[in-house]
Structure formats: structure tokens, C-alpha cells
Amino acid sequence: MSMTSMPTPPAADQPTPPEADALALSAAAPAPSDTVADTPAAAATPEAAPAPGAPVAAAPAMSAAECAEQLKQRFPALFAGAPKPIKLRVQADIQARAPGVFTKAVLSAFLRRHTGGTGYLIALSRASHRLDLDGQPTDPVSDEHRQAALDELARRRAITQARRAEEDQARRDRAHLLRDFEKTTLTEANFCALKGLTPEQLQATLAQARQEAAEAPPREMRHEGRGPRPDGRGPREGRREGGRPDRPFNQDRAARGAGGPRNRGNNGPKAGGPR
């Protein structure tokens, strides 16, 4: 008589995974994790644990945008407004205060994205303490985490500056190509051979250069917004059309120009009489 196999009891819930604060700066050299792993005791606090025999409602499916909106409504002191440094192990606090609302997966995904934003990194680098769900200071921001945020901000700034420099150089190259094409006496085929471009690439580059030239502000407008001069003086005034400043009328100079005697002021005539 065969024995009937008993159903395998459901596996116990795994401990809460470590909470990421999204300070992994790069895959090659990740920054230290900004959280401490939840202990089983912390994950099974009386607030979070269901009553014996009570059914545990599964958290509904939720997108990242819905998760962010729910967190703003439930905990505005921490998640509404400008980014604020989040306390460590905040997932356990959220699950205790809002049981069955958020899944671990959606909370982890939201926190990784939220704490990886530039605004959050700026806030973390400037703050002295992290905040809990009620906006109250908790753990101090460690020097390690602050430096990791500063390093990531510097890396992003360098990438942005390098990208802008490349874009500016590419724009100048297209403008130079357009000027050369408008002045050349070569055929299009020979011009393409000279520049190492196909006819399709040439026409696409010229069209982009013409559009950029049309969108560029006039040369006169580029100089109108200049502020005061470095010496602190205001804008130059009193200049004539030729560029020389207007000088006050001088009677002595006018007299010399008319052939009159030179006014020597109090010095009088030189010794020895007139020459």
C-alpha cells in the first residue's frame, strides 16, 4: 500500500534584502552600500507581524510612479518636495507603517531610482543627518557616504562638460564644412572625396549646419548682454561713430588751431623774451 506524500509546507519568508541607497557609482568601482542589512528580528517586529491565524493580504501590483505617489501621500515629510536624505533600513519602517501596501520589489526599485538621482545626491552631500518617515533627524550622514555622493556628482559633471564640449566642436566643424562648401569650385563628388564623406552624409551635415546657423542669435545680439567691465565701471558712453570718446571743448587748443597765442597759464613767458 503506497504512502500518500504529504504536501510540502510553504517556505518561510526570506529575510528582507539589504536596502540600497543607490550610491553605486559605477559597475567597475561601486560605492559602499548606504544601508545595513535588515536583521530577522527587525523584520519581525510586532508592528509588522500579522496576528496568528490572520490571513496576510498580498500587496497589489504597483508601478514605480504609483509607488512614488503613494509614498508622497502617506509620508510627505520625507518623500514630498525636494529630495531629502533617507534613513537607513527605511523599507522596514514603510512596511510597518503601511503593511500590505508595497511589495519589497517595488520599494527596492523605487529607492534605487530615487536615491540615485542627482538631486538626492546633492541633498545627501550637504545634510548632516538622515530623516525618518516623519521628517525627523535620525542617523548622521557618514563621511564615507557623503564623499561617495560628492565623487558621483563630480563624475556626472565631468561627463556633462565633456559631452557639451564634443557637441560644440561638432557644431563648429559643421559650420566650417558649410563655409567651405559655399566657397568651393569643386564638384560635389570631388568635394565629398576631399572631405571623406558620401553625398548622403554631406547633404545631411549641410542641412544640419544651415539649421544651426538659422537658429543662432545674430552677432549684434551676442554683445548686448554684456555686464559691467572688469574694472567695475559701467558701460562706455560718450563715444562718437568713429570710436573715439568725445573730449570737452578746450579754449587753449581752439586758439592754437586758429593761429592765436598759446596760453601758458601762470607760467608766463619764458626767460630771455620771445624767440
Description:
By secondary structure, this protein is mainly α. It is built from eleven helices and two strands, in the order ααααααββααααα. β1 and β2 (137-140) form a beta hairpin. α6 (118-126) packs across α7 and α7 packs across α9 (199-215). The longest helix has 41 residues, at 143-183. It is elongated and about 75 Å long. 13% of the residues are buried.
Secondary structure blueprint with pairings:
Layout: H1 40-43, H2 64-74, H3 76-79, H4 90-97, H5 104-115, H6 118-126, E1 129-131, E2 137-140, H7 143-183, H8 188-195, H9 199-215, H10 219-222, H11 251-257
Antiparallel strand pairs: 1-2
What keywords describe this structure?
elongated; two-stranded antiparallel sheet; 2 strands; 11 helices; mainly alpha; 275 residues
Order the strands across the largest sheet as they lie in space. Answer: 1-2
Structural class designation: mainly alpha
In total, the number of strands is 2
What is the helix tally? 11
Q: Could you list the spans in which at least 5 consecutive residues all have pLDDT below 50?
A: 1-56
Rg (C-alpha, Å): 37 Å
Biggest beta sheet summary: 2 strands, antiparallel
Structure summary:
With 275 residues, the protein is mostly helical.
